Backbone:
């Protein structure tokens, strides 16, 4: 390994041809914040900002003395710096401060010469991006062309960006002139490579060309130890790049667990003597085809879900699930934050291409189940109560419960299409466990343990009722009494879920001859939660004057405040009606104001809403109404998810 402090002149005075960005590395992800920090530091420190390390690996080409060079770490920084170089070139090339030596620096820092014969020379990009960013990067950097006897770099984006910025400036000035609220016009969250160029082009427009030339000269300082803004580390075939990479405290955005796992898997194929081109072909047909096929596919796999206090991408949840399903997680105490470490430890034990390919095949197989077979919750798609899989998907998503994903994925893997009845039975068990936790308000700290143990029991064919395993826990919260007690104070989001499921269950219980038998409902369509006794009842004179009934030793006002959060005080109403009926007394809320607004009665279609009139007397909604309805709804929930123990 050779490590040396460098200015950017190492790109000009290079020993190699192209620098390859490995196909299994993540795409360019630096954004506005990263660009701003980099440029600010360079400008405020006369170009002497230290950027960390870049790790390059040289590999002998088979049967030759020539080498290929790949970038192991530093792709984000090197890409950004090369775009900055291009923007500086576009500003300085036609100025009086430019000379022929600068032409040579610009061309050689962005391109390498490939000589076909004594006459024909082709300039290719020095930084050779993978398919993920190759087209966008080449459009930003341009190409080398002859202009008479002089070589120049084309500027395919310069005029386009200049016109965009001029239009944005006009819109900005018009907004100020008209007294409108000024919004940030330029967005830098899409087409990151293009917008990196646009950002630098916009920022450098305000810099004096003399100062810009000074920055240029500083970045390309040729004297040793004068402006070492990077440490260039070069390793060879005999050195383990992953271990070196892991020990470097690199600047920029850390690799995600998914990036580290992907890199380790395909690097291990190379370590097992699979030729580079074969690894590349296998990568394209497996990982790329599954997770990076197009923008929609990449976006889906990187959509985040809540898991405990954290958000995790779909792909990270998948890899976590696979690790549990195949036993890479050795104990139930392993957590998702250890995911990359756990995979690396396991992969290091693989000594053959066959073993690694088997792991990849398993990941791809589970990915297909996760994305294409397991139901994906759509709040605008009707759900029927008998649709166990859709029903559970709704519960998991609304409650933001992802902990059981590994077990559910394992169930689909072994039972889907083979024993669908047993699959649904197991899913109903998971649903019952989750709903008892949600309704009772108990902590879900044991979910990781349950999930791990359930997978293990399925793997060894333990036919013992898994529900009994949960119900044998020392706290013994898993009871019907606990379930009903939990309805006294309900989170509004969960309250909507509980009422929605009760309504679906009622449809399923109807006589098959009735029109609404087994009817489906959309979770979101024209439905929102309404507190019948308003959360801010104290702001309405009518509610204040209505009698308040205490309960034992409690003060009447405190008891009313307590009753507001009861499930018995909640119902589902037409979306948008909430703001109309607001905090009004129940009679006005239900009937509406004569000559003004319609009330709930004009829009009621669900029995969960129609029934509330049966719990009051002369249109007076009281604490007794709430507690009686709470008890009745609790009985229905016990009918759906209750237990004898």
Residues:
């Amino acid at each position: 390994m050779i490590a040396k402090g460098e200015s950017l002149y190492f790109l000009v005075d290079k020993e190699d041809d192209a620098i390859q960005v490995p196909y299994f590395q993540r795409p360019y992800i630096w954004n506005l914040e990263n660009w701003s920090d980099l440029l600010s530091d360079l400008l405020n420190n006369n170009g002497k900002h230290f950027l960390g390390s870049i790790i390059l690996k040289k590999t002998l080409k088979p049967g030759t003395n020539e080498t290929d060079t790949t970038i192991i770490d530093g792709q984000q920084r090197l890409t950004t710096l090369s775009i900055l170089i291009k923007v500086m070139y576009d500003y300085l090339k036609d100025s009086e401060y430019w000379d022929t030596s600068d032409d040579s620096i610009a061309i050689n820092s962005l391109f390498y010469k490939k000589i076909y014969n004594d006459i024909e020379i082709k300039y290719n990009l020095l930084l050779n991006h993978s398919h993920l960013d190759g087209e966008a990067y080449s459009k930003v950097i341009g190409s080398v062309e002859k202009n008479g006897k002089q070589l120049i770099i084309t500027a395919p984006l310069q005029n386009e960006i200049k016109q965009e910025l001029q239009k944005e400036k006009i819109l900005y000035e018009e907004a100020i002139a008209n007294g409108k609220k000024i919004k940030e016009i330029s967005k830098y969250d899409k087409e990151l490579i293009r917008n990196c160029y646009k950002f630098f082009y916009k920022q450098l427009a305000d810099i004096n060309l003399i100062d810009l030339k000074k920055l240029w000269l500083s970045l390309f300082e040729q004297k040793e130890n004068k402006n070492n803004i990077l440490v260039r580390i070069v390793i060879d075939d005999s050195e383990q790049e992953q271990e070196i990479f892991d020990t470097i405290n690199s600047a920029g955005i850390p690799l995600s667990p998914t990036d580290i796992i992907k890199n380790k898997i395909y690097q291990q194929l190379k370590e097992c003597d699979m030729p580079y081109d074969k690894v590349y072909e296998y990568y394209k047909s497996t990982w790329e085809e599954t997770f990076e096929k197009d923008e929609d596919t990449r976006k889906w796999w990187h959509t985040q879900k809540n898991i405990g206090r954290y958000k995790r991408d779909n792909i990270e949840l998948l890899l976590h699930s696979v690790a549990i399903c195949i036993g890479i997680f050795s104990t139930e105490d392993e957590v998702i934050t250890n995911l990359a470490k756990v995979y690396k430890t396991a992969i290091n034990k693989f000594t053959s291409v066959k073993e690694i390919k088997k792991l990849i095949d398993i990941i791809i197989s589970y990915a297909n189940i996760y994305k294409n077979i397991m139901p994906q919750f759509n709040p605008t798609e009707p759900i029927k109560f008998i649709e166990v899989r859709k029903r559970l998907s709704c519960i998991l998503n609304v409650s933001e419960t992802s902990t059981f994903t590994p077990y559910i994925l394992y169930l689909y893997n072994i039972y889907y299409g083979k024993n669908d009845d047993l699959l649904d039975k197991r899913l109903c068990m998971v649903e019952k466990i989750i709903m008892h936790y949600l309704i009772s308000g108990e902590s879900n700290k044991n979910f990781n343990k349950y999930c791990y143990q359930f997978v293990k029991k399925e793997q060894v064919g333990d036919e013992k009722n898994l529900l009994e395993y949960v119900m044998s826990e020392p706290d013994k919260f898993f009871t019907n009494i606990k379930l009903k007690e939990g309805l006294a104070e309900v989170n509004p989001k969960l309250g909507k879920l509980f009422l929605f499921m009760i309504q679906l269950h009622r449809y399923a219980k109807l006589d098959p001859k009735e029109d609404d038998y087994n009817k489906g409902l959309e979770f979101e369509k024209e439905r929102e939660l309404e507190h019948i006794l308003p959360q801010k009842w104290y702001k309405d004179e009518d509610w204040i004057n209505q009698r308040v009934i205490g309960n034992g030793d409690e003060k009447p006002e405190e008891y009313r405040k307590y009753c507001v959060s009861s499930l018995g005080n909640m119902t589902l109403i037409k979306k948008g009606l909430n703001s109309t009926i607001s905090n009004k007394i129940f009679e006005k809320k239900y009937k509406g104001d004569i000559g003004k607004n319609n009330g709930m009665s004009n829009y009621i279609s669900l029995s969960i809403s129609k029934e509330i009139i049966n719990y009051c007397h002369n249109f007076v909604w009281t604490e007794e109404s709430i507690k009686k309805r709470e008890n009745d709804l609790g009985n229905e929930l016990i009918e759906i998810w209750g237990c004898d123990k």
